Amino acid sequence: MEGSSKDTDGGMIQTWLKKHLVNYTGATRHPFILSIREGTVDLSSFKRWMGQDYIFVRAFVPFVASVLLKAWKESDDHSDMEVILGGMAALNDEITWFKNEASKWGVPLSNVVPQRANQDYCRFLESLLSSEVEYTVAITAFWAIEAVYQESFAFCLEDGSKTPEELKETCQRWGNVSFGQYCHLLQKIANQCLEKASDDVLSKAEVALLHVLEHEVEFWNMSHGEI
Description:
Blueprint: H1 11-19, H2 21-28, H3 31-37, H4 43-74, H5 78-105, H6 116-127, H7 135-155, H8 165-175, H9 177-196, H10 199-224
Helix pairs in contact: 2-10, 4-5, 4-6, 4-7, 4-10, 5-9, 6-10, 7-8, 7-9, 7-10
Domain Thiaminase-2/PQQC: 25-223
InterPro entries: Haem_Oase-like_multi-hlx, Thiaminase-2/PQQC, Thiamine_Salvage_TenA
Protein name: aminopyrimidine aminohydrolase
C-alpha cells in the first residue's frame, strides 16, 4: 500500500483519514455508539462492552509500555516519552475505574470470558510488541486506538445527544476535552514520525491504522450483540 503525499494541514494522518473515511466513520459512528447517543442502547450491550473492554485495557498496558520503550530507543524528541508516560499512568486509573463501574453495574469481571473479537484485537496488540515493529508504526496504531474512543464518546456528549444520565460518566471519561488534547498530541507525534519515514514504514503504518479501525468495528459489533 502506497503512502500518499501528506495533507498540508494535518500531516499524513489527515491524508489517511480522508482516504479511509468510510473505515474511520465506521469505527467512530458505529450503531453501538449511535445507540448510546440516541438513548436507545440496550444496557446488556453496555455491560458486555464494559466487561470485554476491561480485558482489552489490561492487554493494552504492555502495548503502551512497548511504545514507551520504542520512543526511548528511536525518538529524537524527548517530549514523546512524557506524553506516552502520561497516557500509561492514566491506564492505572482506568483499570480502577472499570472495577468500580463494574461493581456498580453488577458485572463480575473475574468471570468475563474474552470473546473472539476481543481475542483477535489483543493478538493484534501483541504483534506490535515485537522489537522489529518500528516506533512510527506503533505510535500510529496507539494514536488510532485512543482517537477512536475519544471521537466516539465525545459524539455522545454533543448538543442534541440523548445519552442516558447513567452513561454520561463513561462518555465523559474518553470524550472530555483533556483526553481530546492528549489524542491531538499523539497525532502530532505520529505525524512527525511519518514525515521522516521511508515508503516501507509508511505502508506498514497505514496498514496498522486500517487494522485498528477494523478491530474497533468488530469490538463494537461484539458489544452490540453481533457476535
